[in-house]
Amino acid sequence: MLRRALRMAIIIGLLLLTATGCWDQRELEERAIVLAIGIDVSEEKPGQIQLSFQVPIPLKIAGAAGGGGGDGDVVHILKGTGRTVLEAYDEIQKQVNQQVFFGHTRVLALSEEIAKQGLERITDPFHRGPQIRRLLWPLVVKGRAIDLLTSNPELEQIPTVYLLTMIENGVQLRMIPEITLGGLYVRKSSKSEELFLNYFEAFEKKMEWEGIVVFKDDKMVGQLSTLQTSIFMQLWNGKSNFYVTFPYDEKEEDLVTLLIQTDKVEKKISREQGVVKAKLHIFAEADLSGKPFPGSFAGQEAIRKLEQATETYLEERAKEIIASLQNEYQSDIIGLGSEIKAYYPEIWDEIKDTDYFKQLDIEVSYELKLRRLGMLSF
Amino acid sequence: MTNKDPRQEISPRQSASIIASTMIGAGVLTLPRTVAEYAKQSGWFAVILGMIIAMAGVSIMTLLSNKFPRQNIIEYSQEILGSRKYKAVGRWLSYPLLLPILGYWCVVTVLASRLFGEVVVTAVLPATPLEVIISTMLLIAYVLTFYSVEVVARVNELLLPLIVVPVLLISLSSYQHARLYHLFPLRYDVDWSDLFMGAFSAFSFPFLGFEVLLLFAKYSRHPSVLLRDHVAAVALPGFIYTLIAVAGMAVFGVDELKRLMWPTYELVKVTKVPGLILERVESAFIGVWVAAVFTTTANIYYAICMFIREMLGMKGHRIIATILLPLFYWISLRPPNIQALINYLTYSGCAGGIAILVIPTLLLGVSYLRKKGGKGAAHDA
User: Fold this and answer.
1) Which residues of A touch B188 (CB under 8 A)?
2) Top-level CATH class of B15-369?
3) What global pTM score does this model have?
4) What is the ipTM score, two decimals?
5) Cβ neighbours of B253 in A, within 8 Å
6) pLDDT above 50 for A67
7) Does A319 contact B at CB distance below 8 Å?
């Protein structure tokens, strides 16, 4: 009997040990969940960083326990300043009753000014911190980053969710390039390609994707528009999907619109008389979406003519982009350096210590097939 | 000596599970970085070379065990080195030879659980003291030493698929972020010595663990058909390691990979499971890894206990296990920080790797020269 009681006591005692976790438990709702982080240059204290967090207010989210919803802001913005990101974070933590939690952070918004000053002093704590996802979206915001956090498009309860679905849908439709925080780290530490980030503009009730910004050695140097970004995506990994509208047959009012879809880019590197040549050949398919002017594309000849006109138009745009990347920004965001390093290591050994990208002779050619005319016969 | 007791017998599959699950342990968490430091883009090739070294090692040990069925290394090393007239000679010659293996086991088992503790306290349980993780791990391993060999074998057989399947899924699904060009150029600015260093660094910690068969092979039910099973047991971790090394290189590229402390864990962080049920699988991965590290720590703990028991000629090893527990805990807290820990692991892994390759080879060579043991020893069974 006594043995049995003793045995039971030991088992219960051991079971109680498993409950020690409840002693200093922290429930999910007892944390200040940060959905989006904004980083700006401080306006009050020159030279310092202003950090802002977007934190949802659980009680105000419709459908949450207790009803609520409707009136007032669903998110709260917390602000702090400091000489480093972590100093600013510390200031925020001191204003909040709960522990700040980054496990659900989805967006990291940087202001243009911060991006121009360089990313090295910004990214290290994010790279080091175990809570931070590698799959969150780093963005550069025109003007101030905090404006993106306070902007409320009202289609979704939580603005960050709106932004998130906007980026994720864009990436899925191949309209927005996929560059996550993990991708940022990889590009930043690579010596054979440069970094680019998505570029957004924020209004009071609107967020707009404005293309990408281009970095050189972790500092922002310039920007590509949305159409330029779509064509850049063709050069980069060949995966792109966009509408292009241009005057047909050099008549200003005859605007033809096509949906261009590409899957593949062929990159060929060669060396001729000491000059390294890169040939980018892009395979594209096009749908005729709109021809709001008289005239017809009936017959193979007319179709071939339209295809050629589109090829020429895209080639010209691509050349403009390459020219500005090579001369103005001197930034290899296409990753041609990585291509050379991987498949032509002998060439890479010779050029890696030079300003190789500027000296490359880059050629772009398109092979476009018009596949669909829509529901009309010509 | 015969083993009629069914609690002291293990099947070939169990024997293979013991080898495979002892090998898969904390070493995988850092493997992609370690090989990339030496062999750059060809890191995964170094892993394959490491696997070949491990296969050679396991074959030598299996040959040795097959020559002396129903014996462990302590028994047959005495027979190989000793003379029939003076029993003590074999003992005095073989013990110093075997002590490096014992010492290496004591250090590396403990440091493996420390390495695992480090990733747990940095990544998932930041408020938990490191000592708690290590001591619970050592305590469960200690509990396992109270049971018979057959129980250990069944635990390994049961846990192996639980370790292998999730790890396979994770390493395969991280390929969604892979970039092919990160894997090239192959063998360009990497010479053979770099590649061999990479292979040895892969071998000398992540691939070690198969040497527990020096003790466990004694309990094998069919002593002479084990070679195929044992080589397959090494090929399984080898395959997983290669997948993970390729994934790490293809996802991060060589420059980023060298910066990451826990590249395999970071690989899990870029994995997105569709369906939004589990958005972040890191914690689940660490949960699986508890089992992987447990089998490593516990199997070697058990092997150490049997080792000392045989040397001292004792019947049971509970006292030995109890004395070792505080010692292991003490060793595990020696490295002051993670960088020192990695250095300790590198040195002890290298020393141990050489020891477990050289000593069995030496014994096998001497046994051929002195015509000890033999394939025809099956009459003993």
Assistant:
1) 345
2) mainly alpha
3) 0.88
4) 0.85
5) 186, 189-190
6) no
7) no
